[in-house]
Amino acid sequence: MKWLRPAAALILIVCAGCPRLAEALEPPADPYFLGTGSWKQPYEDMWALHRIGFTADSDSAWRLLPAKLTPVTVAIIDTGLDWNHLDLSWDNLWRNPKEIGVTGKVPARGQYQDDVIGWDFVKGNNHPWDYDGHGTFVTGLIAASWNNGAGIAGINPAVRIMVLRALNDFGHTRASYIAEAIVYAADNGARVINVSVGGQGIPQIARKAVEYAVAKGVLIVTAAGNDGIELKDYALAGLDGVITVGASDHDDNRVVFSNWGRAVDLVAPGIDILSLRARSTDTLRDIPGARYTPDSAYVGADKRYYVAGGTSFSAPLVTGVASLLFAKDPTLTAVEVKRMILNSARDVGVPGIDQFTGHGVLDARAALAADRNFFIDASISSVAVTQEKGATLVEVHGTADCNAWGQASLELGAGDSPAQFNAIAAIPEAVRGGILARIPATAFKGSAVWQLRVVVRHRNGRSQEARFRLQLG
C-alpha cells in the first residue's frame, strides 16, 4: 500500500464579544505578514492567516492570548524539515528530553538512536532533512519565526516542532511509516499531529495507530486530499479523533480540487499560500501531471519562500490554531479542542454541516474565545427501510446532541433545494449514533429526491443543522 501526499494545486470577521487580555500577545511585524503583492498578486502575502483571524489589527486573534504562552509540542509527519532555514528558529524545535545531545553522550534507546529532534522513518535514522520541500512549507505555516526582520510569521510562536519524516524525496510513503510516526509522536508527548498525506484505503495498521494516539489524548489533523473526489475509505479522513480539513478560496468557497464527503470536518484557506522553501527544492516541479513552470513559485530575491496551494496547507492552519488552544490552556483535552474548533467555524455554503465544507471555515478568533464545554452535534449518517405492524417506515440514523439540551427535530423538504422544510418528527432527547426517527414511507410521495434535515437547538438558543439527500427508486 503506497500513499502520496495530496498534490499541491496551482491554483475579517470581528469577534465583538471576545474577551481581551490586559497583557495580550502582540501580532508580529514580519515583512511578508504585513506585505501585499510580493509575487505581483492583488492581495496580502499572508492572506490565509488574515482570513482566519490572524491580523495586525486590534481585533487580531492573537490578542485573545496571554503574552506568555505555554510551549506545546506539535508533530509534523511529512517529508522532513530544512531546520537551517533563515526564518525558522531552533528554539521552536522539539528537543527529546530522553536524549543528552549537548554532551554528545547518547544513551542507547533501541531503534531510535539519538533522536534529538525527531526521526526519519523512511531511512531509519535521526536526520529527518527535507529534500522535497513539502514538510518545510507545512512547518512554516505553524512555526516560522516572529519579528526577526525577515519573511513570514507562523501561527504559534510557542510551538515546539517534532520532525517526523515519513515521506520520501518525492512525497511517497507507506501506511507503515505513517503508523510508526503516529505512535512515536504519541509516545513522546505530542499534543497535536499534522498529517498532510493520505490515500485510498484505511489499512488496519494506520487505524490502530490513530486509535492508540487518540487514547493517549492526542489530536490528529489531516488533509482531505486534492483529487476533487468523494471521501470514501480514504485515510486518515473520517477516523474518530481526527480533524479532516478541506481547502477554501479567497471567498470562503470550497476549492474545486478539494475532496468532499461526510468525512470533511471544516475547511481552511488552501490556495495561494505563502510559506518557507527548503533549500534546493521546487516542490511543485516534482508532482506528476502538474502544470507548472520550474522556479515560478519562488518568492523573494533570496528565493527562501514559496507560494503553492492544496489541502496539505489548509491542514496546518487548523493544527496551528489547535496548538494555540493548548498553549493558552494546557488542561484542555483533544476532544474539547476539536469541539471548540468545529463549533466555532464560520458556516458557509449550504446552511449547517455539509459534505463540501463541513462545519464551515476555520475561525481562529471564535475558536480562541470558545467555551470548552459547549458543543452541538447534528448529523444524519444513513437511512434504512423497515417494516413495523405492516407499515413501511424509513428509519433515519444519526446524531442529535449538545451539552445543554434544548430541542431537536427532523424535517423533510422536496427536491435538491427545497423551498421549505416541514417538521416530520420531534426528537425528544439526545441521540448519538442511533435512530433519530422512523418516518412513514407515505411521507415521501410527490418527488423522487428529498432532503432530510436534522436541527438541534441548544438551551442558549444557538442551533446546528445537517442535511441528507435521499434518492428514491
SSE layout and pairings?
Blueprint (H helix, E strand, L loop, with lengths): L1 E3 L26 H4 L12 H5 L20 E7 L39 E3 L13 H10 L15 E7 L6 E3 H13 L4 E4 L3 E2 L3 H12 L3 E5 L10 E2 L6 E7 L17 E4 L3 E4 L21 E2 L5 E4 L2 H18 L5 H10 L20 H5 L7 E13 L2 E12 L2 E10 L7 E6 L3 E10 L8 E10 L4 E9 L2
Parallel strand pairs: 2-4, 2-6, 3-4, 6-8, 8-10, 10-11
Antiparallel strand pairs: 1-5, 7-9, 12-14, 13-14, 15-16, 16-19, 17-18, 17-20, 20-21
Helix pairs in contact: 3-6, 4-5
General description of the model:
The chain has 473 residues and is of the alpha/beta class. The chain has two domains: 2-368, Rossmann fold; 376-471, Immunoglobulin-like (Sandwich), CATH 2.60.40. It has eight helices and 21 strands. The strands form six sheets. A seven-stranded parallel β-sheet has the order 3-4-2-6-8-10-11, with helices on both faces. It starts with a strand and ends with a strand.
State the gist of this model.
By secondary structure, the protein is of the alpha/beta class.
